Amino acid sequence: MNKVVANADEAIQDIRDGAVVMLGGFGLCGIPENCIAALVRKGIKELTCISNNAGVDDFGLGLLLKTRQIRKMMSSYVGENAEFERQLLAGELEVDLIPQGTLATRIQMAGMGIPAFFTPAGYGTEVAVGKETREFNGKHYLMEMALHADFSIVKAWKGDTMGNLVFRKTTRNFSTSMAKAGNITIAEVEELVQPGELDPDHIHVPGIYVHRIFAGAGYEKRIERRTIQM
What we know:
Keywords: Transferase
CATH superfamily: Glutaconate Coenzyme A-transferase
Strand content: 25-35%
Distance between the termini: 53 Å
Organism: Chitinophaga eiseniae
Radius of gyration: 18 Å
Pfam families: CoA_trans (PF01144)
Structural class: alpha/beta
Shape: globular
Protein name: 3-oxoacid CoA-transferase subunit A
CATH architecture: 3-Layer(aba) Sandwich
Family: Belongs to the 3-oxoacid CoA-transferase subunit A family.
Number of domains: 1
Largest sheet: 8 strands, mixed
Number of helices: 6
CATH topology: Glutaconate Coenzyme A-transferase
């Protein structure tokens, strides 16, 4: 199976209006910059985007929000995006805010084939509305469903032509689980190598989960907030 495609535009060519798309990264770290730009160019509408955050106004998923291509966001942390706030308050954007640990676990469970799990996070809050609750050993829990996507899009440091992926540091966070939770997984990598060039002990996502891979280019790798010590 040839998984290598030429570029981001070819990789996302069959994503249609209304698709559910997971996008890896943490803040602006490790986001699939090339594929996000390709989605903007293609003009796909009514997307449901699952991501830890919503980027900033002029970068990351903020670009798709600016062009009104996102119908619904399923996220944990969204505090850096003024356009997100404006659309939410204006009723233009459907939002499902999910506790960060719950979001990560829902994605992980999808990749493991586990349909649901119980967590104490959110019990007694608006997060619990409409959800089944159970008591275990005197403590209350919510039942949360696994979270699947039509497409998962991740960005890795290195990958080989068979789809094996290696991430660097914080960039692996949500991406390693998301790569296993989509019907189709697309990976853009900084460096694309031949099979056998990656140390098997360093592979974070086996190629069996990846359907398309390409070497990205022109990464900005913007820093969301730069903090220095005087």
